[in-house]
Design a protein that fits this description.
By secondary structure, this protein is mainly beta. It is built from one helix and five strands; from the N terminus they run αβββββ. It has one domain: SH3 type barrels, CATH 2.30.30.790. The radius of gyration is 16 Å and the shape is globular.
């Protein structure tokens, strides 16, 4: 039996996040501990990449804060992620949209993709 599969099954974290991909605008609710206090911080931005699989999957979210681009990498299996909300579905043709780093203003906008969500 493959030893890596056994370890991945042991570390499996059961989280139900919505399906999202690069180009989507998401809000990640992230738990932060400061001393003995705990609070939830919201990080809203565009997903510029997803990589890895299963428990090793990660995604990078980029936002503009005061005219400066801020990127943060989140592990999907992190116990500190409270929830992920999808604000907009983006229409992009690439899996990794690093070209967004060099664009500013109206050029940095991503066209919205229409999605039928059955409730």
């Amino acid at each position: 039996m493959d030893l890596m599969k056994v370890v991945k099954e042991q570390l499996a974290v059961e989280q139900n996040f919505p399906a999202f991909k690069s180009g989507d605008t998401v809000t990640v609710h992230y738990r932060i501990k400061e001393g003995n206090k705990e609070r939830i911080q919201q990080f809203r931005g565009v997903v510029i990449q997803r990589k890895g699989s299963d428990n090793t999957a990660m995604f990078t979210v980029r936002k503009m804060s005061g005219g400066i681009g801020v990127e943060r990498i989140f592990p999907v299996a992190s116990p500190f992620i409270d929830k992920i909300e999808i604000n907009k579905y983006g229409k992009v043709r690439r899996a990794r949209i690093y070209y967004l780093r060099n664009l500013t203003g109206k050029k940095a906008r991503i066209e919205e993709r229409r999605v039928n969500i059955a409730k």
